[in-house]
Design brief:
With 96 residues, the protein is an all-alpha fold. The chain has helices spanning 4-14, 18-32, 38-72, 78-93. α2 (18-32) runs antiparallel to α3 (38-72). It is elongated, with a radius of gyration of 19 Å. The chain starts with a helix and ends with a helix.
């Protein structure tokens, strides 16, 4: 039989909440020490995930604007665009 913590892990995984899953142990530790209440623990996990997603959304928006401006510039080469796209892809893959 699965423990409650393991069910929470499975739920976070199924919901694609990677950041909340990463911080779960730390949050549970703080909860066990009495540093935060149960509702604060839930709030912390959701806030971590929301902050990560909001940061990604902002970066994607900024990248879209930059890409559009680069394409509109007459002297932007295909090589420069490819380099910018590789940098953006690298940041997206390595995003915490």
């Amino acid at each position: 039989m699965m423990s409650v913590t393991e069910r929470i892990r499975q739920s976070l995984l199924a919901l694609h909440m990677a950041r909340a899953l990463e911080t779960l142990d730390h949050t549970l530790s703080r909860l066990e020490k009495g540093e935060i209440s149960a509702i604060e623990a839930i709030d912390d996990l959701l806030a971590e995930e929301l902050n990560l997603r909001e940061g990604r959304r902002i970066r994607q928006h900024l990248w879209g604007n930059l890409k559009q401006h680069l394409q509109e510039m007459p002297n932007t080469s295909r090589r420069a665009m490819a380099m910018a796209e590789r940098r953006q892809w690298s940041r997206a893959v390595n995003d915490p």
